[in-house]
Fold each of these.
Amino acid sequence: MGKRVLVIEDEPNISEAVSFFLSRDGWNVFTHSKGNDALETVAHRAPDVLILDVMLPGRSGMEILRDLRADSRWQKLPVIMLTARGHSRDRAEAEAAGASKFMTKPFSNAEILEAVRALAPQ
Amino acid sequence: MNTFNLLVVVCLAYALLLFAVAALTEQAARRGKLRWARSPLIYTLSLSIYCTAWTFYGAVGYAARSGLEFMTIYVGPTLVIIGWWWLLRKLVRIGRMQRITSIADLISARFGKSNGLAIGVTILAVVGTTPYIALQLQSVTLSFDAFALSQERSGFGASAFWVAFGLAFFTIIFGTRNLDVNERHHGVIIAIAIEAVVKLIALLAVGGFVVWGLSDGVDDILARIDSSPIAHWDVRPGRWSALIFLSAAAFLCLPRMFQVLVVENSDERHLRTASWAFPGYLILISLFVLPIAVVGLDRLPAESNPDLFVLTLPLAAGQDGLAILAFLGGFSSATSMVVVASLALATMVSNHIVMPIYLRMISGSGASVSGDVRDVVLFARRFSVAAVVMLGYLYYSLSGGGTALAAIGLVSFVGIAQVLPVLIGGLFWRAATRIGALAGLSLGFVIWGYSFFLPSFGPDVVFSSQVLLEGPFGIQALRPQALFGITGLDPLVHAVVWSISLNTLAFVVGSLMTFPTPIERLQGAQFVNVFDHSAGPRAWTAASAQSEDLMIMAQRILGPKQALSLFHNEVREQTGRPGRPGDLPVPTPEFVGKLERELSGSVGAATAHAMVSQIVGGSSISVQELMAVADETAQIIEYSDRLAMQSRELEKTAAELRTANSKLTKLSVQKDAFLSQISHELRTPMTSIRAFAEILRDGGDLEPHDTARYASIIHDESIRLTRLLDDLLDLTVLENGQVNLNIRRGMLNEALEQAVITAASGEDGHRIKVRRDANSEAVELSTDFDRLAQVFINLISNARKYCDARVPELTVAVQAEEDTVTLDFYDNGTGIAPEARDLIFEKFARMNTQRAGGAGLGLSICRQIMMRLGGDIRFIASDSGAHFRVRLPKDGQTA
């Protein structure tokens, strides 16, 4: 059984695309589209890698990340942040909040794949 | 030719000599060759008019009657000029600063230029001086008679009239020849100086004759004095103090003394010489008084008048030449006094009484004051001189000439001493007021008149002897010579004590109870602090000192650099070569004028004039000048008010700018947010497109239906991108006002119909039922129907996307009014959350990011369109579904 990747992303097309190419690479992919119950979903799915969009309905990705890092269970969880806003201060904020990787949309699929592979615990 | 005729001839020749000297001096003065006439010596000699016929003849009589008491008359002035030189200096300085013309003018100027006060002092001076002038006429007459008697000729009673006439003539010729701003009369002063020398020589000659001719030298005369009855050193402290005080007061206050001391003074520093030379003169002139008196009492018959010993002793000894010299001395004493006194009084009378009345009369008659005022003033002066001398003559005729000379002199002294408290107070006490001065002067004058002047005519002339003894109406307390029941005092001491003390009391109390007017305050400060307000003593040749003062002032006002260059340029112009540092230009009238113009640029014309003239003219600042200064100050205040207003306006502008700036900052933040939103809206579909495009490109084991699906996602997202770009462009065009509207007439229901067809059912199969009312929709409009339909489509598709009712339903209600049409769009969903309502018209204010097919610009575009169409779109708050109200004019002129 492959490692688990959770994708929290409100754009269904993007989730679908990411799910597709990660699944094909052998990852066990779960998706979620809302911000407000993201923490529960993380607890429920217990992913090895988390892909987290910044702009989510209900709750922003930044807040979710901070909450995760405040929880001892998820302090080590690799988190890849995605954003469609091109602000450099978003990158700084994400890194300060504890993101493992920060990527700007549109990304290349290979890039994500590589990041997931690199970050997933051996 | 007998002695009497010789006397008349010598007398006339002497008079002619004086006329000639005066005339020559005046001529020299006009040609500006007067340095010698302005020497300290001349000034000191002119002061000797203090020594009148009273001193010349009367002192001997006084000594014969009362012993050493006569000395008090000399002690007073000596004390003043030695001990009170600072007071004299202050008087002289003020006199020059304020262009004082008389003691009345001084008092008036000090108390706010009050003419009432001036009139009071003038009357006091005239009344006080009249007996004195009478005294001089009497002495001349008596001395003529002494000659006549010795020649056994008939009495020469009419001589007093001719003497008076001659003196008035002389005074009019040389005292009122023309008007001098400084009221200085050089011819008169020189004539008086000569007379001063003549009377001193005459008295010394008679004294020498008495001591070495009639006696056997100094030892003999001292022995005679010791054995004579007047050598009882009859010192009465009360009377002596009163006399010393009186003579000191007279020296300061007598109109003629004020004239020579202050008005005729041309240089403050002359006082320094006078302070030792004048006491010296007094000592010389009093040196032989006692010997003459003693020898006269010894040698002459008991009934002979001791007042004439100076004359009768040489006559009795057959020394006619010496007698004529003595006569000339007496004549000099009398005439110099009358001339200066009548001159001083005439100035006062014409300036303070005649001219004000004349000016009031002509202004009352409507005539304008023209150049002939000068003539009027001159005439007034001449008339006043004649009147004053004639008044003296009348007093002499009426009083019968019987009273002793010294007694008459004392009456005058006490009268004029009434000015002293006000004078001293005015010079040293800033709080002194006009009312106080008036009260003091009036009370003093009344008490003097009642207790001393009127009784001096003798019993039964003005007061009956009964009134003198028992008081008016038998009231003992009001007895003229024993006021308030105080008896046993010498009449002189009595009068001095009561009049001066009550005068002073009234002055002080009156001043404390009243407030000085502004101009009184101003003048008070000018007088009391005269040395702070004026430059030090300045000689006529001290041009460089003036330049220095001008330089200091210019530096203070123009700034050191500019002032220095101004003065340097002037030096270059005057000398034709560049000045060395420290060189100062000669203050020529041209330069002073130039400087004044420069200064007026900085401080205003009036102030500049006042400042310059204070230095150059040595004059005071007149009221008019002060008013002008005040005017300028007011203008400056007004100007600074305007500046303050301007600065307030600037502050307002700055505040507005700050507001605008913060608005701009906010706008900038909004712009950033907008760009960030656009970035997000563009990148999101692009991400999907890129991701699926890469999947398709990479190929691999793709199911055919996946391939088709991914291609269609790429397609849909491309369309979404395109629509987003279209909306953005549309909004930009609308916001910039660059949109071209296509206004035409049409029916509202057509636009609605088109919108419903387009928007009521989406591509995703979502539908919304739209309720309409055909009747109310039949409204004819003139507007851009395509844009209007765009608004309707937006509202309908929003309702379709967001209405969360089980069976979504949108109602469109139309209400047509006269000029406008109102359309209400409301659905049956749960509506918009209250916290989101404010934002719905903002760009990208999508309620949630769940795919709604729009970019969040719809309502922003609607609002822009409605603004362009001259209407508006609003969200209507309600508890039920979302409710939008669109209003637009029927006759749509574009906004």
Amino acid sequence: MYLSREEERIYNGDFGWAYEISMKILVKLGDLYGAERLIPIESAHVSGVSYKTIGNAPIEFLEALVASNGRVKVDSTINPSSIDFEDPSFNLLPGELIEKQKRIIDLYSALGIEPTLTCTPYYIRQIRTGSHVSWAESSAVIYANSILGAWTNREGGPSALASALIGKTPDYGLHRPENRRASVLVKVEADILSESDYGSLGIYLGKVLGDSIPVIQGKIVREECFLKQMGAAMATSGMVSMFYLNGLDGVSQIEEKITVDNRDIRRSYEELSSAFEKPDLIFIGCPHCSLEEIKSISSLLYGRRIKEDIKLWVCTPRFIRSRAYDCVKVIEASGGRVISDTCAVVTWLRELGVETLVTNSAKTAYYAPLMSNVKAILLPLKKCIEVALREV
Amino acid sequence: MEMILKGRPIVPGAASGTALVSTKPLSFLGGVDPKTGIIIERDHDLYGRSIKGFILCFPHGHGSTVGSYVLYSLAKNGLAPKAIVNMLSDPVVVVGAIIANIPMVDKIDITQIKTGDVVEVNGSLGIVKVFRR
């Protein structure tokens, strides 16, 4: 791989260990995956924040980066943590967990990363079409490539962090136009009408697509929250990092055709719903809600009360929460909580008294049983809210 | 008996020791206890074994990318393997070996290596020498 003179000096440790080790990570990945050079990035999004998911793993490495004065070179954001420190529900958790979670966030902040603590950094800062970025968090990666028109590989926590410190990424994979062509044509013949239908479709597609790029045609609506759910789900059950819709962009190399009908979607729903018991938690906000989603939830809840024995969580970036003051008031007046900095996938559900959850997110329905040993039911938003409100 | 296997250099450095060989992919996050170096992934063929000080041979990594940090912690706590040999490396293990400074070679047919063999790994040249009694 070609390195400029300055990049070589970084590689040789002239600017300290934090930059040296970051450069070594990028150069090795570039060598392995055929990059010829490093290219500048406009932002980095780093995963590996929730203490529930990752434990102590990153602490020692982050401490070493901070000790050698590492600072990020580009706008950098981080994924959700395991706790909303401003919401009293989380006070139930043992003090040690709270301290460890704080420590991890402080270390990322000390590197100059904004503690955004969200999986939807694109709701906080706009990103230019055609810009190269280095993002971890698979749902944000597929959103960036497919909806925002940005270019990113599916980074892991460590490689996104290395890119943040150097401000560059090796030029391979989805940073190259020749690798952004679709190879599979998906025809949707199923009637998909809600965000959870799109999520079910995404889980189904992820399983059959692996890491291919599809063009999705048929009965598809370009509704932002539908596409967000579909992408997040595809990246959950598969390694899909990009999709195209309808149009003919990139259709030149189609090798395979797939048709999806109503039965496929129904089966996908059945696989994602592991419970018929009464839920303890209704969870909306995976990926974190946009302002529009917060508005529709608050209009469904306006003037209503949710049941005493059910929790309703609406998770959204703190930035959005602060701009949705009236909606937050409506949701919280109904008995729900608008929560930031975490979500049901990466917090301690069992410790918070949750055994069964209802969600409109196929990604959560897929992960919650695996990661938190809770049961899940997948329903569209309106039905989720009905469950919360319905009289027994 | 001596056997020389040629692979691809991943992380420079040389190490020799006893081979610990697995036929299964390994997830470092949730699969290896960073406080003891013991494999805790329940259905893994090395379940219950410590990887400390061995030449660890396995097909490739899987699971969370944060697994790289587990290798760093293992090294800091003196519990890391002396070297890593993979069939085909993946970014999680590569990045982990770089930050933990563990010599590593991939593109090696690890079925040629048995647990207990004495192995010399040259991560700079991508060569693995196997000695069997």
